[in-house]
């Protein structure tokens, strides 16, 4: 981790992460694809509505997973294995308990929650059917993400990949079986998701017992303010980023509902496509993070900078290729998930707008991951909230009021450009900080 050239080390670390992220993206894409075969804009829209809650569940998982994982990688770099082990168990069981709380509260307030997420009256029955099942899986959905992140930060990305990949393959097989063969409809898609994620959860638990990975045990949990402070510092950027992505989706659904179920369905489909397009970039960044953490903890700051620039260059080229393909084949991509002329027309314009600025995310995301892993909570959290919170939420409302549906379609493009302009001076400051002698 501290000697292999970063141009060889990061791709090796990143490959399992890229596969894991691409496969994770399939969870929602598979549901959207098979639910789209029900020939109902309302059903497709419901999956898009519930996606915002799933983003909250993921945000909780990333909060505990990234928070504990960043601490673990630095402490292993310092050879403090006892504290690393205690943090692993504390982060995992805390996430599991939070998932149980989300499940209970969500089921108690199911219908108000559905409306809050952006459901219309016509979408509501489908939303409740899908949402009620997804909530049952919240405990292991949150804790699976903790296991995935902790394994990555220990350098065991291959175990994380196997766990996530197995669940995704199972999900793709269960979707048609439960939706069409057993005639469960949209609820079948939800059952397929939580069953497959439970299988992933079990496999990831097994991965924690293999090799030299830190073992999880309830007796290792230490409810110390010290540990939760570090979880907060390391995980807050992820919580802010993922949580605000959920709030942004709710705002998007609320703005789009004025234009009917087709608009909600179209924007939901575009979100899935862009999420899949960015998955490889996120995965590559996740391969950079343990390299960044180990070398920062070991005081090898030149390797941190070298790894950052290498990751930015690779992901920029990747996103540029994805953007070109997305722009050229936008109608065909949207029609895969919902073969409806109105959905295709709305989704095509939105997808092409987003492709214009998509490659700028390479700098933004790699910089944010670098700041987060180094423990720079303030700049990392600011950049985490900038894209979907500081810029997208006000932008989508302002443009919706002034330009109508085209404003909604171009809101993400405008927000991405503003985020990039903010991120440049912040990350340059971080790189200069790494060049200075550390006290």
TrEMBL record:
Claim: Transport is one of the keywords in the record: yes
TM regions (residue ranges): 12-30, 42-65, 86-109, 129-147, 159-182, 188-208, 308-331, 343-364, 385-405, 411-431
Membrane-topology annotation of the record: Multi-pass membrane protein
Cleaved signal peptide residues: none
Stretches assigned to coiled coil: none
Keyword list, A-Z: Antibiotic resistance, Cell membrane, Membrane, Transmembrane, Transmembrane helix, Transport
Cell compartment(s), UniProt: Cell membrane
Family as reported in the entry's similarity comment: Belongs to the multi antimicrobial extrusion (MATE) (TC 2.A.66.1) family. MepA subfamily.
PANTHER family linked to this entry: MULTIDRUG EXPORT PROTEIN MEPA, SPORULATION PROTEIN YKVU
UniProt-recorded name of the protein: Multidrug export protein MepA
């Amino acid at each position: 981790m501290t000697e292999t050239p970063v141009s060889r080390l990061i791709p090796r670390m990143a490959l399992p992460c890229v596969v894991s992220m691409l496969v994770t993206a399939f969870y929602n894409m598979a549901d959207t694809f098979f639910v789209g075969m029900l020939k109902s804009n309302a059903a497709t829209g419901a999956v898009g509505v519930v996606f915002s809650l799933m983003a909250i569940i993921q945000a909780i998982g990333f909060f505990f997973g990234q928070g504990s994982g960043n601490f673990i990688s630095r402490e292993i770099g310092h050879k403090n294995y006892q504290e690393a082990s205690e943090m692993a168990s504390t982060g995992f069981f805390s996430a599991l308990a939070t998932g149980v709380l989300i499940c209970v509260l969500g089921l108690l307030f199911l219908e108000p929650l559905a409306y809050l997420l952006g459901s219309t009256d016509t979408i509501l029955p489908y939303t409740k059917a899908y949402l009620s099942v997804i909530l049952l899986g919240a405990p292991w959905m949150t804790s699976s993400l903790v296991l995935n992140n902790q394994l990555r930060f220990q350098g065991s990305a291959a175990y994380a990949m196997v766990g996530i990949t197995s669940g995704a393959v199972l999900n793709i097989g269960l979707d048609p079986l439960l939706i069409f063969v057993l005639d469960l409809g949209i609820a079948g898609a939800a059952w397929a998701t939580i069953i497959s994620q439970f299988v992933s959860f079990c496999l990831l638990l097994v991965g924690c017992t293999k090799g030299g990975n830190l073992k999880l045990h309830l007796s290792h949990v230490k409810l110390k303010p010290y540990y939760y402070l570090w979880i907060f510092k390391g995980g807050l950027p992820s919580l802010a980023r993922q949580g605000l992505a959920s709030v942004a989706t709710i705002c998007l659904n609320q703005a789009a509902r004025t234009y009917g179920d087709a608009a909600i369905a179209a924007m939901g489909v575009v979100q899935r496509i862009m999420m899949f397009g960015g998955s490889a970039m996120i995965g590559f960044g996740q391969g950079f993070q343990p390299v960044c953490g180990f070398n920062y903890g070991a005081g090898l700051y030149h390797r941190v900078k070298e790894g950052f620039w290498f990751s930015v260059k690779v992901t920029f080229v990747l996103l540029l290729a994805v953007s070109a393909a997305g722009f050229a084949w936008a109608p065909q991509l949207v029609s895969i998930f919902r073969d409806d002329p109105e959905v295709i027309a709305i989704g095509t314009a939105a997808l092409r707008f987003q492709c214009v600025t998509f490659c700028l995310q390479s700098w933004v995301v790699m910089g944010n991951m670098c700041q987060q892993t180094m423990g720079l909570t303030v700049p990392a959290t600011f950049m985490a909230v900038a894209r979907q919170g500081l810029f997208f939420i006000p932008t989508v409302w302002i443009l919706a009021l002034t330009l109508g549906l085209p404003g909604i379609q171009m809101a993400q493009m405008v927000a991405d450009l503003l985020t990039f302009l903010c991120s440049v001076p912040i990350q340059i400051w971080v790189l200069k900080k790494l060049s200075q002698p550390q006290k």
